[in-house]
């Protein structure tokens, strides 16, 4: 406890760090206040928010901190920006023009960010129109159409752009990645309500207090397991040759390339979830298939068929996303240019093949563990855990929470160590999370 108070005191003594933390809290407070401001022309009492708490809409509502179900001006949150970032990143792989921009350094990144913003506006407008027409019931609309749709589209688009601006301000003047922190705050905002509901359910007779304590212990173990997956690395030793520059000797040291066990982050779960919503969408276009047993089974989030297919898709997407984001050939070329080599491995293609082989071997257990984390919420629901509380047992939300918290703590520790204070831990260092797409800056999000 004394160590904790000493660390907090050291953090407060560093003026720059203190100002950044205060700025971050103020910006996040602005976001949370805005999430309760209802769209103009909407009657809050007539809203049917139950449909926005299940399935894909429930996931979006969690990322938006409940704004989606409340028809807030921030109802869409930063999800259009995350979607645009993912699209731009995939374009960087498939389209030579975007691939060239990614290699142009700072100017290229500025161009990519500009394209991402333009695409964000287009996606937000499309989603705003769909939201105002499909999510808000006619009974809740106090303004007639089409004026209501036009007004809501304008306000929702402005709200998303304002949230993007808040995220950028947090990144520049605060601590941590702004967009990731906004998503994390939205997820955490749902935790107290879910916790209280689960506690009341258990203590009122469904399982008792002992069952609730067992659930909390299980949640802690799952969080620890997730941290191991996020932090896990396979280090490859790299030796740098000695070279003389004037009277000084450079090189001759051994360093390590840390290859993440889960290099793909949360993206495989996001891609797999997008595909798993297809079976539930098909009956809306083909009503005759509404009673199809296969589609019904795949649409049931607690069924074995759904979760087995979900896990397989996550494993496949983990390999796919790792393959397009980690380039062994480029790593080998960069190593060769800097006079580095892996002991016992020839430079060039042999080194690239060696790195690729190591990545393939560590990706398999990483993908399996990621799939296990993703299906734990469904297993928790099967054993009787409240569906909202079960979401914190794994899946996208837990990985984002762990990644963002570790990343923020790592930045705080860097400020402390830079000014010769002790770090946040007595031994070791907080590594932070794995690298995220440059366009997103999140686990989409952190993100």
TrEMBL record:
InterPro entries: SecY, SecY/SEC61-alpha, SecY_CS, SecY_dom_sf. The chain crosses the membrane at residues 21-42, 73-95, 115-134, 146-166, 178-197, 209-230, 264-286, 306-326, 362-383, 389-409. It is a multi-pass membrane protein. Keywords: Cell membrane, Membrane, Protein transport, Translocation, Transmembrane, Transmembrane helix, Transport. The keyword Transmembrane applies. It comes from the Bacteria. It is found in: Cell membrane; Membrane. Pfam families: SecY. The keyword Cell inner membrane does not apply. The central subunit of the protein translocation channel SecYEG. Consists of two halves formed by TMs 1-5 and 6-10. These two domains form a lateral gate at the front which open onto the bilayer between TMs 2 and 7, and are clamped together by SecE at the back. The channel is closed by both a pore ring composed of hydrophobic SecY resides and a short helix (helix 2A) on the extracellular side of the membrane which forms a plug. The plug probably moves laterally to allow the channel to open. The ring and the pore may move independently. Component of the Sec protein translocase complex. Heterotrimer consisting of SecY, SecE and SecG subunits. The heterotrimers can form oligomers, although 1 heterotrimer is thought to be able to translocate proteins. Interacts with the ribosome. Interacts with SecDF, and other proteins may be involved. Interacts with SecA. Belongs to the SecY/SEC61-alpha family. This is Protein translocase subunit SecY. It comes from Mucilaginibacter gynuensis.
């Amino acid at each position: 406890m004394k160590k904790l108070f000493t660390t907090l005191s050291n953090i407060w003594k560093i003026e720059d760090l203190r100002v950044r933390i205060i700025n971050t809290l103020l910006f996040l407070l602005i976001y949370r206040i805005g999430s309760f401001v209802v769209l103009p022309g909407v009657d809050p009492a007539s809203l049917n928010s139950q449909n926005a708490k299940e399935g894909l809409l429930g996931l979006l509502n969690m990322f938006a901190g409940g704004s989606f179900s409340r028809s807030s001006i921030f109802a869409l949150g930063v999800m259009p920006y995350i979607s645009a970032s993912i699209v731009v990143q995939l374009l960087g792989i498939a389209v030579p023009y975007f691939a060239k921009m990614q290699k142009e350094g700072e100017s290229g990144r500025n161009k990519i960010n500009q394209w991402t913003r333009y695409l964000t506006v287009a996606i937000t407008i499309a989603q705003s129109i769909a939201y105002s027409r499909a999510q808000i019931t006619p009974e809740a609309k106090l303004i007639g159409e089409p004026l209501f749709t036009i007004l809501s589209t304008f306000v929702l688009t402005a709200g998303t752009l304002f949230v993007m601006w808040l995220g950028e301000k947090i990144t520049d003047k605060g601590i941590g990645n702004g967009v990731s922190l906004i998503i994390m705050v939205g997820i955490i905002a749902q935790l107290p309500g879910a916790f209280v509901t689960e506690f009341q359910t258990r203590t009122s007779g469904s399982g008792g207090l002992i069952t609730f304590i067992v659930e909390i212990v299980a949640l802690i173990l799952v969080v620890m397991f997730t941290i191991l997956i996020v932090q896990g690395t396979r280090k490859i030793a790299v030796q740098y040759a000695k070279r003389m520059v004037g009277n000084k000797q450079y090189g001759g040291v051994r360093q390590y390339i840390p290859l993440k066990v889960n290099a793909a982050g949360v993206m495989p779960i996001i891609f797999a979830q997008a595909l798993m919503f297809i079976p539930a969408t098909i009956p809306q276009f083909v009503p005759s298939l509404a009673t199809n047993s296969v589609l019904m089974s795949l649409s049931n989030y607690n069924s074995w068929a759904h979760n087995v297919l979900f896990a397989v898709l996550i494993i496949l997407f983990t390999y796919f996303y790792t393959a397009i984001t980690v380039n062994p050939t480029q790593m080998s070329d960069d190593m060769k240019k800097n006079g580095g080599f892996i002991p016992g491995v020839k430079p060039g293609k042999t080194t690239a093949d060696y790195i690729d082989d190591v990545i393939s071997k560590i990706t398999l257990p990483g993908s399996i563990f990621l799939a296990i984390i993703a299906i734990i919420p469904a297993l928790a629901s099967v054993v009787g855990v409240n569906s909202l509380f079960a979401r914190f047992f794994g899946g996208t939300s837990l990985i984002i929470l762990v990644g963002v918290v570790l990343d923020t703590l790592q930045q705080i520790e860097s400020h402390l160590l830079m000014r010769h204070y002790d770090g946040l831990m007595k031994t070791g260092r907080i590594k932070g999370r794995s690298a995220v797409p440059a366009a997103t800056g999140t686990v989409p999000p952190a993100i």
